[in-house]
Amino acid sequence: MSAAALEVENLTVRYGGVCAVQSVSFTVPAGGCLGIIGANGAGKTSTLKAVLGLVPRTVGALRVGGQDVSRVKARDMVRHGIGYVPEGRHVFAGLSVETNLMLGAYAQKWNAATRGQLEEVFALFPVLREMRGRLAGALSGGQQQMLAIGRALMSRPKLLLLDEPSMGLSPKLVEEILAALQRLSADGLSLLLVEQNAKLTFEATDSCLVMENGATAMTGTSGELRHDARVRRVYLGL
Q1: pLDDT in tens, the chain (238 residues)
Q2: I need a labelling partner for 194 at 20 to 30 A (CA). Which of 25, 28, 92, 169 fits?
Q3: Which helix (H) or strand (E) holds 25?
Q4: How far is 194 from 180, CA to CA, in rounded Å?
Q5: H/E element, 206
Q6: What is the DSSP track for 111-159?
Q7: Cα(207)–Cα(63) distance, rounded to whole angstroms?
Q8: β-bridge mates for residue 60, sequence order
Q9: Taking Cα atoms as reference points, which of 98, 58, 50, 109 lies closest to residue 77?
């Protein structure tokens, strides 16, 4: 059996005297997809950033593919097979779409395999091929989200972390992003998805962790949680 894509044990995040995440543990199986859902302020984004080392943390264990990465700096996580799609996209607005994508492969040698990865991104998001020479800042919000995902994929990650990819998008574009995530998952890429949009999360993932006030409130398969009365009332408004 291959090692889990990601193992997190007793992750805690503090901002001064405030505990934003308290002793959270979870596993993303190799080739699996885990969602983290919860209301605003539940600690979802802090959890994701702490995994990457972008915020101060304490952690009992942090392993990627069975390898301890608890002391790896955030800038080096990409070399351990982690891709990251940040909240708000953060594309390089003054650079072309193609240059944005090429920057995603900065840790790779530019060769036939990298060019092949670029073609795979264009196949996943054909609109990026059409707009490869356009400035990223001229793209719509949905197109910028596709670009942010494509840029992360250029490093050929084994695990992709996404923070609120549906934020600010129309329902139609949310469906397009969902289809892309489902395709990536079907191709064997492991995913960790942080989302406030519970419906999208349940469609895109195998299992979910529900956070409240920085702690784990519930865990289960996406199918089970989707029909859980408490989750439907608190997170889906049903």
Answers
A1: 468 999 999 999 999 889 999 999 999 999 999 999 988 889 999 999 999 999 999 999 999 999 999 999 999 999 999 999 999 889 999 999 999 999 999 877 777 778 889 999 999 999 999 999 999 999 999 999 999 999 999 999 999 999 999 998 999 999 999 999 999 999 999 999 999 888 899 999 999 999 999 999 999 999 999 888 888 766 655 5
A2: 92
A3: strand 18-28
A4: 16
A5: none
A6: SHHHHHHHHHHHHH-HHHHHTTTSBGGGS-HHHHHHHHHHHHHTT--SE
A7: 19
A8: none
A9: 50
Instruction: With beta carbons less than 8 A apart as the criterion, state whether 87 and 48 touch.
Output: no
* CA quadruple 181, 45, 99, 160: dihedral, nearest 10: -40
- What is the torsional sign of CA 195, 199, 204, 208? positive
Determine contact, residues 25/182, Cβ cutoff 8 Å: no
Tokens 């900065």 found at: 106
* Integer Cα distance of 106 and 91 in angstroms: 15
Nearest to 3 by CA among 85, 63, 81: 63
Per DSSP (E only), the strands in 57-102 are 61-64, 67-68, 82-85
